Amino acid sequence: MGTNGSTMLEPLRQGLPPLDPAAVSSTASCALPSRLEAVREARQFTRRTLCQWDAGERSDDVCLVVSELVTNALRHALPRPAAHVCEQDPPVRLHLMRWSTRLVCAVRDPSHDSPVAGDSEDFAAESGRGLFLVDSFADGWGWHPLAGTLSGKVVWALFQLPCAPECTK
Fold it and tell me: How many CA atoms lie within 13 A of 28 on its CB side?
């Protein structure tokens, strides 16, 4: 996971049950390019990772939430025009962290602006429902600004997972 992952976890305490960074059983991370195709790449990366982790029935929920978080980061958090962003240092990064019965997906982006929920009343709308969906499918979510050498923010979602077979022995 490296330093970026563990420093990211520190502020996750805000609104989350205590999560000990030392107790993380699995982590995965991928950098995403600043184009909308990255949403599909993030979803595929998440599905592959969750399959390896045997995350069970929550996989579809997690993939949906990852899609929404990455879409929000690409649409609202990148500088305009996004073309000048250097591909050597992709501005959006997806982190997946698993504890025995909890999973956190976190999307880092370069913006300091807080995420804003759209009008969730219009269910026929094609956009503006991302955070409403995150709130509906995740067991909790939040965001925090990054500190130190990292700039921007992290938007995270928490999922409760069924107990793994090895923890019932």
Answer: 15
- Any idea how long the chain is? 169
pLDDT at 122 over 50: no
| Main-chain phi, psi angles of 134, to 5 degrees | -60, -45
CB-based contact 88:25 (threshold 8 Å) = no
| All residues at 6 or more sequence positions from 77 whose CB lies less than 8 Å from its CB, including other chains | 91, 92, 109, 110, 111, 113, 152, 153
Closest CA to 71 of 96, 40, 105: 40
* CA-wise closest residue to 72 among 29, 128, 124: 128
Please give the Cα distance from 153 to 81 (Å, whole number).
19
Owner of token pair 């990292």: 150
Give the model confidence (pLDDT) of 7-58 as tens digits: 555 545 444 555 666 667 889 999 998 888 999 999 999 999 999 998 878 9
Residue 57, SS3 per DSSP = helix
| Contact (Cβ atoms closer than 8 angstroms) between residue 34 and residue 81 | no
Confidence of residue 80 (pLDDT cuts 50, 70, 90): low
